[in-house]
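Allow me, if you will, to draw on your knowledge of protein folds for a short while. I have a record of one protein: its chain in single-letter code and its fold written as discrete structure tokens. The full record is reproduced below for your convenience:
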Amino acid sequence: MKYVRSLMQKAYRGQGGFTLVELLVVVAILGVIAAVVVLNVGGFMGSGQTDAANTEAHQVQTAIIAYMAYNHSSTAPGTTVSAATPGIADDYLVDPGKLQATYTYDTDGAITAAVATTGGKWDGCVFVNGQWTC
């Protein structure tokens, strides 16, 4: 029994834990991983606003097409659809009062311009070539 105990003490004598260098390497690796994750999450936040703005524009375009189909018309008056001013496509939107921009479309029903509502969700976004960029 005494022999087994002395062998166990010899086996455990040289093991005291991690060295400072090993701990610093692990902390550095975790820092690099955290930096990569934070930078990637920041990119997702901006794209969500742009996607939501483009979805709204698509819904307005769909409402204009629905107006033209319901009225058996190949043209739509060049009016504006906005949260403040009722437009011809308002009847085909679920809640036109919650639109975040004013949309102008030509007689063919294509959206030609859009301006974000001041202080709204898309404020600071730009509508170019049929797409929002935030």
